Give the backbone structure.
Amino acid sequence: MTRSSTNEPENPGRTALGRLEEELRAEIEQLKRQLQDHKPAHAGGTHVLEHPPRPRNRTILGLLVLIAGIFVVAFFAGYVPRHRTALQLVTEAHAEEESLPEVSVAAAIRGSSMGNLVLPGNIQAVTEAPILARAEGFIQRRYVDIGDKVNAGQLLADIQAPDLDQQVTQARAAVQQTQADLERATAALEQGKANESLAKVTASRWDNLAKRGVVSRQENDQYQAQYMAQAANVRALDRAVAAAKGNVAASQANVARLTELQGYLQVRAPFAGVITLRNIDVGALVNTGSTLLFRIAQTNPLRTYVNVPQVSAPEVRVGQTATLSTADLPDRKFNGVVTRTANSLDPASRTLLVEIQVPNPDGKLMPGTYAQVDLNLPRKDPPLLIPSDTLVVRSAGTLVALLDTNNKVHFQGITVGRDLGDRIEVLSGLKAGQRVIVNPNDSVQEGVKVHPAAGK
């Protein structure tokens, strides 16, 4: 078998295949000769093989090697060009991606269905009252001081008022005097009624005699006038008795008033609480209605007032829970309940005044403490949240740079809500899951394709 001579270099793979092919052909020719030699003669002049010859192992191995070589050649002939083309495409794709601007992206996520609205508030006592003096005098004894817990009706101090005692004695004497005047007026009334009765009988008799002509009309008129005078006197005495009774009642009321004031000489707590202020000491002079003796506050429960913004005011309901925290107790949370709202917004601040009561059985919370109140407000449609450094403020408004499925930039206008620091609430303009570019630079333009990287 001759080969044409060319300028191309000889392929070693093809040379080996050619040699193998020549060996196989030689083996085949040898098998044919062996078949011719082993044909037996028969009567009919025909020959059949009594024992068919078996191919040698070397021949079978050679056939297998030939088939395998053909497959190897075909594989390398088709795979290598395609592999080179794929490598070239991958290299070009990587080069194109490396040439694109790389940006950080973040997905717009839906906020929690329970909004955590944290507002400042001042803790106050549910009930707090100043205790003033109702009687003039001197402090005789003092039984409590600031910080003492007292019960309702507990004795706090004694006031000594000798002038008040003398006034009570004088008022009681005045009652006795008015009662004596009443007795005199009553006796005079009874005497006047007797005189009126006698004058009436006399006037009736003289009237009958005057009708018979026995006496003159002048004498009859005189007795009739005496009767009328006695009747008028009785009416006057009756009014005098009523006035005397009024004087007695007034005197008795004065005694009761002064006696009641004597009861205020013992200063007692109006309700259970804590003494937060003491303004007097033993021997101090106190005046009626002007001297502050103590200040008492009820500390269990406590109340806190917060001003809820207008956007969250419709979500506040009486009975919902709230959580309070203070700077002096950072590891402890206090649970409270919304007890009442103003049901009206303050026109100056556009806020709703809300009262929250907090149980304080151990007295850890103190009135006047500054607290952070966390209102657990349910949200029917929670807003979306995006990083705060994704916003782009331009003349067209507030925008964000979105990425589509092909990683192309599109600037979308949005409506923002509350600023939560590192996050911004988006009320409209975005959908959950959309990707926004974090901190976009000048290379981020409308329609530009970029290379996204994991952001916040």
User: Anything to note?
Assistant: The two ends are 74 Å apart (CA to CA). Helices lie at 12-37, 57-99, 162-212, 217-263. Residues 3 and 10 are 10 Å apart (CA to CA). The first helix runs from residue 12 to 37.
